[in-house]
């Protein structure tokens, strides 16, 4: 989960020499002279970059390692950059990765096809299978012009095309003008054929996170349930426990699994993290009050002004998960500089008009692609041909899958609270989403009782 916000001030860089533990890839005088190539060591790379502190200058260890990665994987003019010329900025907003913008100094121009700027992404998670799938998906989507281009990949991270842009904000994505642009992107993602396992991965992933959490000291004791940003009706206070154990969470996942098996939601290739920070508004465009994207001279555009990023959680999944998760994100706001680093606009979970606008735009794109007939992998069960029936179905899915999204990210929050070095109150976030899961669980119970 990441939003791209690039500081406008000068890069904050420490010129201190790296510690003895850091194997420097270049000498000060000759940046092409390698001492020892340790970038194949994923654990070491993560260790170095996890020392990043957003409130302090970028360390010499990170500076030297980033410069070597640029020379090796971007090549060309990047091999000529001296230490005093190297330009690197931390990009804020990452909740799952560390992100940096690297730039060639002004006096150097590309020699071949290497970029003048690039986004350096260092993965904080260590699931090798997940990282491999994510890299494959990233490449596929970039080839389909659904995201940034891949510039280089290395164990523990990659270089991506830097798109001059800003991340959308929480209170923007529900506006009808933007919703009509986001929904077709989601529809196009759902019709892709990706070379990864075709079975839904939601519950498997959540259980893996919970199993890892269970092995931590925090996982051995009950979780105290108190709310930080979420608000629930007083009648709901008795619907979620004052404490909850891993065993109880496992039972809730079993209940969710039973719902999924009876949801009749088609399985499609899914992004699984359609939050505001993963949609970029390309520089040069501006937003009207209703979310309509305008050119600099104030006219509506026919171009594609949005770019979808961050495919870390992509997998095949129930369509309803992407829909429900996106509507959850109408209310979760991560643009907070102070602890707990998020807030919740809870009334946005109940919107009806905005939900219908999105679902209609989604169906417009799906039916257009279906009529075109040039996708041999178009999912046959995505629509029925009865548009009104399809609209009612996806609106229902988008509501029912909101608690599924909540408990999925609860499990993610629990393990990140124990393992992540990123400044975010994962514990509070997980408790809030768990309370909201119990608040919305009644929708699943009602659905199942009517089967």
Automatic annotation (TrEMBL):
Gene3D superfamilies hit by this protein: 3.90.1200.10, Phosphorylase Kinase, domain 1
Transmembrane stretches, start-end: none
PANTHER family: CHOLINE/ETHANOALAMINE KINASE, RE24176P
Pfam entry (one): Choline_kinase
Annotated protein name in UniProt: Choline/ethanolamine kinase
GO terms assigned for molecular function: kinase activity
Organism of derivation: Caenorhabditis elegans
Recorded name of the encoding gene: cka-1
CDD domains in the cross-refs: ChoK_euk
Alphabetical UniProt keywords: Kinase, Lipid biosynthesis, Lipid metabolism, Phospholipid biosynthesis, Phospholipid metabolism, Transferase
UniProt family annotation: Belongs to the choline/ethanolamine kinase family.
GO biological processes: phospholipid biosynthetic process
């Amino acid at each position: 989960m990441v939003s791209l916000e690039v500081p406008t001030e000068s890069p904050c860089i420490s010129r201190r020499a790296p510690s003895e533990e850091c194997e420097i890839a270049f000498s000060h005088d000759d940046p092409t002279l390698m001492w020892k190539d340790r970038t194949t060591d994923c654990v070491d790379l993560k260790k170095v970059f996890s020392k990043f502190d957003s409130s302090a200058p970028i360390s010499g260890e990170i500076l030297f390692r980033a410069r070597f990665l640029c020379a090796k994987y971007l090549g060309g003019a990047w091999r000529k950059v001296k230490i005093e010329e190297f330009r690197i900025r931390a990009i804020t907003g990452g909740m799952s990765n560390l992100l940096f913008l690297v730039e060639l100094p002004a006096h150097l121009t590309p020699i071949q096809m290497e970029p003048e700027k690039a986004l350096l992404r260092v993965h904080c998670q260590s699931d090798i299978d997940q990282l491999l799938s994510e890299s494959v998906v990233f490449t596929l989507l970039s080839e389909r012009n659904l995201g940034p281009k891949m510039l280089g990949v290395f164990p523990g991270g990659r270089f991506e095309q830097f798109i001059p842009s800003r991340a959308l904000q929480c209170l923007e994505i529900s506006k009808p003008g933007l919703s009509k642009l986001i929904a077709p992107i989601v529809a196009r993602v759902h019709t892709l054929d990706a070379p990864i396992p075709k079975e839904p991965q939601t519950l498997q992933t959540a259980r893996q996170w919970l199993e890892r959490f269970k092995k931590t000291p925090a996982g051995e004791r009950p979780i105290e349930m108190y709310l930080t940003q979420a608000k629930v009706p007083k009648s709901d206070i008795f619907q979620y426990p004052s404490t909850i154990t891993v065993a109880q969470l496992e039972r809730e996942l079993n209940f969710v699994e039973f719902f999924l098996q009876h949801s009749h939601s088609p399985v499609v290739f899914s992004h699984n993290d359609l939050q505001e920070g993963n949609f970029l508004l390309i520089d040069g465009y501006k937003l009207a009050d209703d979310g309509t994207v305008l050119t600099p001279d104030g006219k509506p555009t026919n171009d594609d002004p949005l770019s979808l990023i961050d495919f870390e959680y992509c997998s095949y999944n129930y369509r309803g998960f992407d829909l429900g998760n996106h509507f959850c994100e109408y209310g979760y706001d991560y643009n907070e500089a102070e602890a707990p680093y998020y807030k919740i606009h809870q009334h946005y979970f109940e919107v009806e008009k905005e939900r219908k606008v999105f679902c209609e735009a989604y169906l417009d794109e799906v039916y257009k692609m279906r009529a075109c007939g040039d996708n041999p992998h178009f999912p046959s069960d995505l629509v029925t041909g009865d548009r009104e029936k399809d609209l009612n179905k996806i609106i229902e899915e988008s509501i029912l899958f909101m608690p599924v999204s909540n408990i999925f990210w609860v499990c993610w929050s629990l393990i990140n609270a124990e393992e992540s070095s990123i400044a975010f109150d994962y514990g509070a976030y997980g408790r809030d989403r768990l309370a909201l899961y119990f608040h919305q669980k009644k929708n699943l119970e009602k659905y199942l009782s009517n089967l």
